[in-house]
Design a protein that fits this description.
This protein has 151 residues and is mostly helical. The protein folds into two domains: 72 residues, no CATH class; 57 residues, no CATH class. 54% of the residues lie in helices and 4% in strands. Strands 1-2 form a two-stranded antiparallel sheet. The relative contact order is 0.06.
């Protein structure tokens, strides 16, 4: 069985063409992926151009360099993280603080456990927690100041 050099040459050319087409398609898909990824991670035009140039000039090593220099979080992840932080800060601000020492206290505490500052008082009738300036209990309706008896 004799192989025709022309047929072998044609087969090699076809294989080389497929390999080149595959590599070009791979390179273009990597470029598109990098561009899409950097747009999700940064709005900085310099970073977008730098990522594109890295992949265009250095197809394989450019992707590795891009993975090293790209921001770790997407813009959406940064936004969600900022929302979570803001929510936590609002929760901390809602918690009452002791006027004496500034520590966080519970709303139903009567005294601050750290500095013993009076925070609230108990209703003399029903025993519910009242704020210090209240002279009337909103739960039972009884006045909080005992009437003085004259002799």
């Amino acid at each position: 069985m004799k192989f025709d050099p022309q047929i072998i040459s044609n087969i090699v050319q076809i294989l080389i063409a497929f390999a080149v087409a595959f590599l070009v398609a791979l390179w273009l898909s990597i470029l598109f992926w990098v561009l899409r990824d950097i747009r999700q991670r940064s709005r900085d035009p310099f970073m977008i151009i730098l990522a594109a140039v890295l992949v265009i000039i250095l197809p394989i090593f450019g992707v590795i360099l891009y993975w090293i220099i790209r921001p770790t979080k997407t813009i959406e992840e940064k936004y969600q993280s900022a929302l979570e932080e803001e929510s936590l800060l609002q929760e901390l601000e809602k918690q009452p603080k002791c006027p004496g020492c500034g520590r966080n206290v519970e709303p139903d505490w009567i005294l601050c456990p750290a500095c013993h500052t009076r925070l609230n008082k108990l209703c003399i009738s029903c025993g519910k927690v009242l704020e210090l300036p209240w002279n009337l209990c909103p739960y039972c309706g009884n006045p909080q100041q005992k009437a003085y008896k004259s002799n």
